[in-house]
Amino acid sequence: MKSIYIGKTKDVYALEDGNYLLKFKDDVTGENGVFDPGANTVGLTLEGAGRAGLSLTKHFFEILKEKEIPTHYIDANIEEATMTVKPATVFGKGLEVICRYKAVGSFLRRYGMYAEEGQPLDAFVEVTLKDDERQDPPISEDALDMLGILTKAEYTVLKDLTEQIGNVVKDELAKKDIELYDIKFEFGRVGEDKQIALIDEISGGNMRAYKNGNYIEPLKLEKLMLEV
Questions:
Q1: Cα–Cα distance between 98 and 104 in angstroms, integer?
Q2: How far is CA 4 from the centre of its chain?
């Protein structure tokens, strides 16, 4: 294996067959020891977070596969905290796509003049640039097109996939009486036809989920979701 990228919460390796291996780590994003899926820095380390994140990712990616929603997922090894994926090309230098069901986090910080905390949102989709130096600024459909990052036709596909996948996750959580407030995705172009597909992961570290009004931390979310 050849090391390709050392990330905040996972490392990436190139395999001899042309696919890639993602190694999940126990680091999660946040600030000052407090978890925040929207943060740009590693805020804390939770023992077992890597395997927990991968277990939940495997669970959701296999559901998406059954529903024929495109992803880069091939298979996963929970014990080794690794996932094998197809190669993908990101948009520009990377985008994050957020699907929001409640007004919390950065949405509330930006729009608090008009929004109340916890106000329902109808699968609101927003795109941000992966740019730590500039605090992952939001970017509009027009700007994505004009800057050559994503065409308007691709944006339509991206937005539709985000809503589909967000609603799948939301419905799965609801089966355990868990409410999804927001979730962050990454997408890329996969295969010779450059099909837009979900990449990266779907784990507790990428979402805010609540039960009976109480926030569920990533490790607990995995246990609640996967317990029989």
A1: 12
A2: 20
